[in-house]
Amino acid sequence: MNYKINKGFQAQEQLLKEIVVNYETRGENFGNQDRNSLKLFDLKGMTINVKSFKVPNIFNKIAYKFFRKSKAQRSFEYANTLMELNIGTPQPIAYFEFKSGLFFKNSYYISEHLHYDLTYRELTTDFNYPNHEAILRAFTRFTYDLHEKGINFLDHSPGNTLIQTAKNNYKFYLVDLNRMRFETMSFEERIKNFAKLTIHKSMVEVMSDEYAKLIGRDYDEVFDLMWKETQAFQNRFHRKRRIKNKILFWRPKKY
Fold it and tell me: Does the first or last residue of the chain, that is N or C, have fewer Cβ atoms within 10 Å of its Cβ?
């Protein structure tokens, strides 16, 4: 077992170890369990979120053992960096890794469980959500702040931003943090960062309008590139799905 615990939670080291060791038989399932498992636990009166990353394939078992940081370690370190940069993310608590012999086995990322009102995804499915456009524009300002601080969130997708809306004071928190780069972003890279968020042209128009004002560029220039990148991502996504379905034709389809 390899692990690291943030200073404010080191007094609960033994409890955190017990949670991880007994993960399979304890805790409350939370959210989608398809790719990785997510459970809620109580830690001295605080609800914590424990993410268990699935066991990697044979190549990554070796890579994570010797050459690359695990997804759990990256999530933990990136969360701490985000907090230092004053970017919202659930409080990082710890990460744990298990290794044996030549191989990496599995890993866990632990953070505070954050209560939120919606994710960006709800904006793509409910256009009557209260203050829909105001939230979308605030989200665009949040993304601009990421870019200005040199944060390239590679998984900037609908389910990975939690939103709190108390008193119309919108706060945004990033989750699923293991794919991120800290770098100066070009104009093209900034706009491409919006490509995974929505298929709806009307939403792209609003985000383009807000981002153009923030960055001091012409609206048409921002919209044309954002819509082009959105369509290109959708084309790649559906092409990959068609190829995967042909290769894995024997698997039952998910609806």
Answer: C
